[in-house]
């Protein structure tokens, strides 16, 4: 069976454990991801009605431009050589560009060839993940790949908001909502995407309150790191755990197995 190409490489992607999470999800009803990231389940299952949201506005802009102008985004992406100096030149330009297809092309190039697929920003909000192309050279996607992803994105509603604001405005009814937020824990250092303060304990509490509020009319599935912060709050709704393999510090040669928890509310 031929593996589908992935539009983005994403730290924390569920692509390697999708068979463990998919049984909890429903793709034959309205499908919603408030923390969509690479939107793996969306691309893999093609739900007919979907709402994809992420706090990372550059990610959502990339999806939007790829949907509307796939050839143009691909041309900017394909023009950048896979070389360390070219990567840092592209990163500097990306941080200067405003929202446009050229920035979208730089976004996907940096994602493919940065260290471990990590979207990390400094205090000024500038993307600062280093080059990662030396560890695992990767073939570029083709123009036809971009056209296929463009078609897949046509029926998706794309927004960039705080997850609670997004869901409050959407007012979902009879939907499947998959929550896979950035992981916060007091137990250890976690490299947060989009900056160090994106998702904290108060946000995990908000996530629980929102999930409870929506569970009366929707199915809510939440995956999260196995930690006391999550298990204490969601303990009544945890239905299982999944084993995931993480690269320690992002290095492929230093792997460890961890547990993530799955909670289901409503449905």
UniProtKB/TrEMBL annotation:
EC nos: 2.1.1.72
Biological process terms in GO annotation: DNA restriction-modification system; methylation; mismatch repair
Catalytic activity: a 2'-deoxyadenosine in DNA + S-adenosyl-L-methionine = an N(6)-methyl-2'-deoxyadenosine in DNA + S-adenosyl-L-homocysteine + H(+)
Molecular-function GO terms, alphabetical: S-adenosyl-L-methionine binding; sequence-specific DNA binding; site-specific DNA-methyltransferase (adenine-specific) activity
Annotated S-adenosyl-L-methionine binding sites: 10, 14, 54, 180
InterPro entries, A to Z: Ade_MeTrfase_dom_2, DNA_methylase_N6_adenine_CS, M_m6A_EcoRV, MeTrfase_D12, SAM-dependent_MTases_sf
Signal peptide positions on this chain: none
Keywords for this protein: Methyltransferase, S-adenosyl-L-methionine, Transferase
EC class (word): transferase
Family label: Belongs to the N(4)/N(6)-methyltransferase family.
Protein name as annotated: Site-specific DNA-methyltransferase (adenine-specific)
Organism of provenance: Roseovarius aestuarii
């Amino acid at each position: 069976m031929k593996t589908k190409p992935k539009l983005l490489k994403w730290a924390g992607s569920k692509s390697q454990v999708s068979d463990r999470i998919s049984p909890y999800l429903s793709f034959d009803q309205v499908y919603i991801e408030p923390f969509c990231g690479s939107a793996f389940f969306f691309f893999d299952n093609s739900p007919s009605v979907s709402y994809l949201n992420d706090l990372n506005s550059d990610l959502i802009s990339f999806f939007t431009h790829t949907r509307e102008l796939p050839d143009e985004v691909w041309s900017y992406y394909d023009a950048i050589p896979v070389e360390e100096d070219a990567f840092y030149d592209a990163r500097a330009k990306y941080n200067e560009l405003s929202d446009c297809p050229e920035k979208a092309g730089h976004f996907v190039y940096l994602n493919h060839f940065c260290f471990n697929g990590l979207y990390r920003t400094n205090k000024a909000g500038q993307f600062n993940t280093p080059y990662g192309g030396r560890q695992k050279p990767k073939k570029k996607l083709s123009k036809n790949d971009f056209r296929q992803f463009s078609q897949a994105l046509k029926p998706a509603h794309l927004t960039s908001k705080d997850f609670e604001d997004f869901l409050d405005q959407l007012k979902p009814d009879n939907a499947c909502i998959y929550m896979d937020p950035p992981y916060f824990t007091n137990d250890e250092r976690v490299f947060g995407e989009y900056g160090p303060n994106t998702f904290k304990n108060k946000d995990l509490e908000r996530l629980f309150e929102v999930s409870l509020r929506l569970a009366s009319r929707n199915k809510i599935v939440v995956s999260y790191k196995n930690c006391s912060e999550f298990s204490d709050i969601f303990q009544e709704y945890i239905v299982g755990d999944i084993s995931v393999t993480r690269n320690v510090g992002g290095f492929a040669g230093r792997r460890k197995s961890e547990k993530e928890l799955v909670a289901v509310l409503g449905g």
